[in-house]
Amino acid sequence: MKAYLFRHQHKGIDPTRVFLQPPTDAQMASMNAHADSVHGAGWGMIVETDIVSDGTIPVFEIEQSGSGIPGELSLGVPMMTFGALGTVTNPE
Amino acid sequence: MALTPKTAVLARNAALDAFVTHVGASAVIRWYDGTQPTDADTAIGAQVLIVTLACSATMAPASSAGTLTLNAITGANAVATGNPTTWGSILTSAFTRKLDFSIGASGANLNLNSVTVGSGAACAMSAATITMAA
Prior knowledge:
The structure holds two protein chains of two kinds.
Chain A: E1 2-8, E2 12-19, H1 25-39, E3 44-50, E4 80-89
Antiparallel strand pairs in A: 1-2, 1-3
Chain B: H1 9-23, E1 28-33, E2 49-55, E3 67-69, E4 73-74, E5 76-77, E6 85-91, E7 97-104, E8 110-112, E9 122-132
Parallel strand pairs in B: 7-8
Antiparallel strand pairs in B: 1-2, 1-6, 2-4, 3-9, 5-9, 6-7
């Protein structure tokens, strides 16, 4: 069985925000707005994990590979990209 | 197994908006020559500053659909010339680098009509976006 946990940039994983289905965008917005107001503006994300047979949630056993720090979610893709256009007008 | 995290669009927007807040008011964009540092926390060595462009007091409005579109960027004249400009950065108003990027004629983060910057050349950026991968 899967569980979905809300994680905020400044709060970290919130043990009171655990779902058995992925939260809706509206729920996500509400949780993020609340966390922003309490902990300061920051990003929010959903962490998917497994519930093991005794009902505990191994939050820090998210499968990952590469050189990531154990326990951290390794994204595996560049998260932020920058694109721009510009001009240079050299003197005659 | 492949790594396949996917973030909700509202989470991506929040991350981008947090970046604008982190950079702060009256950010600037600088172009340099030489080799781009390993990351934005690595100090500049022998690279030469080519030009400093001013972002709007508020760098960008709230992001939408995982993309941040920067407000107008004020052009400026080059302060140094010589080698081609090869990389740039978004900096705070106190000139602390926050996001480094490549500069080239094509296929770079910032694409210019000419990477050769002559003495006193007018430098401008007509559009800039920052996007968070889904």
